[in-house]
Amino acid sequence: MSQIIYKIVPEALWREAERNGSFTGAPIDLADGFIHFSTAGQARETAAKHFAGQNGLLLVAIDGARLGEALRYEVSRGGALFPHLYGPLDLKAVVWVQPLTLGADGAHQFPALEGE
Predict the structure, then answer these.
(1) Is 107 helix (H, G, I), strand (E, B) or coil?
(2) Residue 109: inside a domain, yes or no?
């Protein structure tokens, strides 16, 4: 099983995290008490459900193996296990960051994801 997990995040929020050296989460993460991530198989559905029609997003790939015990897979949408991080994201765990653009059909255009 791939250890790469994904975060969809507004670019401005991510750039702020880069300046600060860590990512503490988007407003929903702060409200829930953990940072929400998706596996490769969950990322497209997450984009459609929570970010439909939004521009200015980034897709961030994270090496989940570097997050230690603060990363937990917990039951969420549809009974599936989703990765949740209880604590700030150390940017040293980031593998890559790419724009998540909208296609002509209004759906987000994903690169190939490790673990699909």
Answers:
(1) coil
(2) no
CATH number of the domain bearing residue 52: 3.20.170.20
The pTM of the full predicted model, rounded to 2 decimals, is 0.93
**Cα(78)–Cα(106) distance, rounded to whole angstroms?**
24
Per-residue pLDDT tens digits for 26-71: 999 999 999 999 999 999 999 999 999 999 999 999 999 999 999 9
Contact 84, 74 (CB under 8 A): yes
- Does the residue 32 lie in any domain? yes
Comparing C-alpha atoms, which of 2, 114, 1, 111 is closest to residue 59?
Answer: 111
Q: What is the domain count for the chain?
A: 1
Identify the sign of the CA torsion 80, 83, 84, 86.
Answer: positive
